[in-house]
Amino acid sequence: MTVTTSVVPLATYRNETPYPFCPGCGHAPILDRLNEALVKLERDPREVVLVSDIGCSGLSDQYFNTSAFHGLHGRSITYATGIKLARPDLTVIVIIGDGGCGIGGAHMLSAARRNIGVTLLVLNNFNFGMTGGQHSTTTPVGAVTATTPGGHLERPLDICATVAANGAGYVYRGTTFDEDLSERIAEAVRHEGFSVLDVWELCTAYYVPKNRFSKKALFEMLDRLGFPTGALRRQDVPEYTKAYREMSAGAQPSDTWPSRGIDARFEPTLERRFHLVVAGSAGGRVGSAARLAGRAAILSGLWAAQRNDYPITVKTGHSVSELILSPDEIHYAGITRPEALAILSVDGLKKAGRYLTTMDEHGRVFVLPAFADVTSRASVTVIDPTRASDRIPKAHVALAIISAVIHELGILPAEAVDEAARQLGGEHLAATLRAVAAGRSLVES
What we know:
The protein is α/β, with parallel strands linked by helices. It has 15 helices and 15 strands. It has helices spanning about 25-40, 75-85, 100-105, 105-115, 160-165, 180-190, 205-210, 215-225, 240-250, 285-300, 345-350, 355-360, 395-410, 415-425, 430-440; strands at about 50, 65-70, 90-95, 120-125, 125-130, 135, 170-175, 195-200, 230-235, 275-280, 305-310, 320-325, 340-345, 365, 380. A hairpin with a 5-residue loop joins strand 5 (about 125-130) and strand 6. Helix 13 (about 395-410) packs across helix 15 (about 430-440). The longest helix has 15 residues, at about 25-40.
């Protein structure tokens, strides 16, 4: 599908959600300057991707009306690299803390060596603020932290000198108190290559109290360390994604990764946007089942967006998939109030509370017999997998329930769901097709 849109300049890229940061924390003013920079740049918010990881800085992306990607600690630069390689037209901005720079130091060096076209915004407050104020790679000598009560002994990492020496095209060091910070952020984003802004700030929860730190002390520390400030490097060197595409321009199709698009083959039965949430347990193939439904939607000429939520543990805890199906382009992948909710396990029930409270009388909740007493303003339908026309293995319960929900609501053609299963293939194809058919039998009269 090709969609032509026009961009109307925005007065703000911030949403209405208030920041959660401690009073006096430097994160808020840095994000405000980022917002001002985006307003100056007038970029389409759908074409801006904020990439974050863990820590207080990792909370940042959710306060902006842009695209976003949130991942593991120290790995945000790798996600940004992949996004930029796949879509070099996007504006990709990484928001990371000094802790993430230490954990992901090798990724930062690789991005600098490649001069990958993303902007790295470092919220540098010299400690791990979210987890109790432990020392980080930028903690200065002598500093008192939770893990260095007698004073820190290591020299702090000079982020700017490190990335500059390894090829970054734009390098800036400043503070939250710099009046031109928003302009420097905009300048960094405009730069074609790898841009790094190391912004020093105050952690009022841990670093400031333990070290009697202040704005004045921050500037004194810059002088003591001999770390220069301002735009330290502006150099036009080949940007990686552009150079890669130029190198690959003459490659034969057999030399490149094959394109695997999904062509519409069936008539859609859905005429409006539909929000479906499936809440189950990790290891229950919830995400795989939702992905199959999303593929069936695309096969039916619809747009589909899937967002998964699960803990860091393996095969324990919850697994929730939010699935949006729409005849129109989807600009935001989150769901607040689903039209349909399927609850597959105790773990899923625990995570489903926020959906149950927002659903109204027009919604449908589908539950296993064990959760028949769930309360909601939406109507509740019990689906018993043991009553299927064919035995449903435990590993395929999620798929069978999604198949039942889709068939009951009539939101996708049955043949599109079957074709999606066949396209996914694999050694369990026959079992997958049986589960899809068995799910439909659960709601057929």
